[in-house]
Design brief:
Shape: globular
CATH superfamily of the largest domain: Metal-dependent hydrolases
Radius of gyration: 26 Å
Distance between the termini: 55 Å
CATH topology of the largest domain: TIM Barrel
Number of domains: 2
Oligomer: single chain
Strand content: 15-25%
CATH class of the largest domain: Alpha Beta
Number of helices: 19
Structural class: alpha/beta
CATH architecture of the largest domain: Alpha-Beta Barrel
Number of strands: 26
């Protein structure tokens, strides 16, 4: 029989245990036994984290978190890896959502396959224009004129536009070309990306209810890929209005950073009224594309492409300066997409004429491809942020090597050199014009190309730099570094979980890494 003394000791121990538990803070979620890449200033790796009201309240060791907190939901991760959610710093969210309504032709192996799919769509949607994408360019090599003839005869009354899989060009039929004003100078047949983007503006917009469904699907695709914040580069007033209303009624949850087209309506409704911000939407940036695709001879270079004609500016230097000055006067960030070295020089010179030294407007140069070393000296002085699209390097490498000098080829995509002039660099997927896969972007940024050097320095990012470029540096470029981009106390609990360590794993496998779970503000969204 148990003695009274022993019984008293057991009761005392239980009492102390109850008192101890009662002094623990209650939180919503605890992560345990993980490898948490915080991406803080020390790039620390922790074991455990506690989340309450959508924010991190502690990031520490398992023992420390267990001693201080209790939660209804405890996730035992068994050594899995936790990273801040990816921030897609250069994407076209509304256009990506719209592209989900297009006829996906990636499985079409013959022209008949294409026509059959278009016929099926027209049968179900007799009054709609036909828009397709992901047409395999290799399958239809040397057959473009044949398919254009078929599109003109088979769909004589229905406008048709089909994007090729790389989004470098598109096919449009005569019925589509006839719907475009004559001064747009677009004829039926094969058109380059710049003309295709202009042509696409004439496609009738879907209803708000249909667009809402497409945005919801686009949001889920982002979550599935590990993206917890996205960007809408080139957003229109109606795009922003719809996203704002859907976020306010709780239908959309993903935070969106809107980069406005400099159209009169945007200037009147947003830019002239100073930055607009809610919990999930920021409207304080203006974006414009200064030139076009490098591989289509549309980038504006200092010297012509070998014996080919040079590209032309999309707007004049005076117009660029006027747009930049309007943005500056209203406290807006300016984002200029410039590909060629001459276009980039113009953008940087325009920035430095307007910006004061050591400002905090965080203006950005997007899609930096071809640059001149001396032109980059102003990046740090004027706090200009380089925004790169790493996947474009692999797509452009062969073209650059065959069209430009060896010196210029080696200096292309000089990412490490950009970092020597600035404290950060940001990456984006550029969807829908590239794949919505941040792991593929990460891989493209770190893939080793020993022959690609600038001033004897390899230009690939380290895995640490690439992760920062898609998290904390991306957050900084969007004025969000105090709220997200790293796993730290007081920041939103936006994070992803994987079974692989993307900072150390064998690089060719990176594009295929699966994000097992995605959390937005402490709530699981995948």
């Amino acid at each position: 029989m148990m003695s009274h003394k022993r019984i008293l000791l057991i009761l005392l121990g239980l009492s102390l245990l109850t008192v101890s538990c009662s002094h623990k803070e209650h939180v919503d979620l605890i992560l345990r036994n993980a490898k948490i890449y915080t991406v803080n200033s020390n790039f620390a790796v922790m074991q455990s984290a506690a989340v309450r009201n959508g924010k991190f309240v502690a990031v520490s060791s398992d023992a420390n978190i267990s001693a201080r907190y209790t939660a209804d939901s405890v996730i035992e991760l068994k050594g899995k890896f936790v990273y801040p959610g990816f921030i897609d710093a250069h994407a076209h969210f509304s256009q990506y959502a719209l592209s989900l309504s297009y006829i996906n032709l990636d499985s079409a192996l013959t022209i008949k396959n294409v026509i059959d799919q278009l016929d099926d769509f027209q049968r179900d949607n007799p009054d709609m224009w036909i828009v397709g994408n992901n047409l395999n360019a290799e399958v239809f090599y040397d057959k473009e004129m044949q398919i254009c003839t078929i599109l003109n005869s088979h769909f004589a009354q229905t406008p048709v536009l089909i994007w090729l899989s790389d989004y470098n060009s598109a096919l449009i039929n005569k019925a589509f070309a006839d719907m475009i004003p004559a001064d747009a100078n677009i004829r039926s047949g094969i058109i380059n990306q710049r003309k295709a983007l202009n042509a696409a503006k004439f496609i009738p917009a879907p209803s708000d209810s249909i667009m809402a469904e497409l945005l919801k699907q686009a949001e889920q695709n982002c979550f599935d890929a590990g993206i917890t914040s996205t960007t809408d580069f080139g957003a229109s007033y109606s795009d922003v209005q719809l996203i704002d209303s859907l976020q306010k009624n709780g239908y959309l949850r993903i935070p969106v950073y809107a980069i406005l087209e400099p159209l009169d309506e945007n200037v009147r409704e947003y830019i002239s009224k100073m930055p607009y911000q809610t919990d999930n939407l920021k409207v304080q940036s203006v974006g414009i594309s200064l030139d076009g695709k490098l591989t289509q001879n549309l980038a504006v270079m200092r010297a012509p492409y070998g014996d080919k004609q040079n590209g032309q500016l999309a707007i004049s230097a005076d117009s660029l300066q006027n747009i930049c000055r309007t943005a500056y006067e209203h406290g807006f960030q300016m984002c200029v997409n410039s590909i060629g070295d001459s276009a980039t020089r113009l953008a940087l010179n325009t920035f430095t004429k307007i910006l004061p030294i050591k400002n905090d407007l965080r203006w950005r140069i997007e899609g930096l491809h071809m640059t001149v070393r001396k032109d980059l000296r102003g990046l740090n002085h004027y706090n200009i942020i380089p925004s790169i699209q790493p996947s474009q390097y692999q797509a452009s490498k062969a073209f650059i090597d065959s069209n430009f000098s060896r010196k210029l080829s080696r200096e292309a995509f000089a990412w490490k050199h950009f970092l020597s002039h600035n404290q950060g660099i940001v990456c984006g997927t550029d969807c829908p014009y590239s794949q919505l896969n941040p792991m593929a972007v990460f891989y493209a940024a770190v893939k080793q190309e020993k022959q690609r050097t600038h001033n004897k320095q390899s230009q690939e990012l380290t895995t640490t730099q690439a992760l920062k470029a898609m998290t904390i540096w991306a957050a900084y470029s969007q004025f969000d570094d105090k709220q997200k981009g790293s796993i730290e106390v007081g920041k939103w609990a936006d994070f992803i979980i994987t079974s692989e360590n993307i900072t150390t794993m064998y690089q060719p496998n990176l594009p295929n890494v699966t994000v097992e779970r995605t959390y937005l503000r402490g709530k699981r969204v995948k």
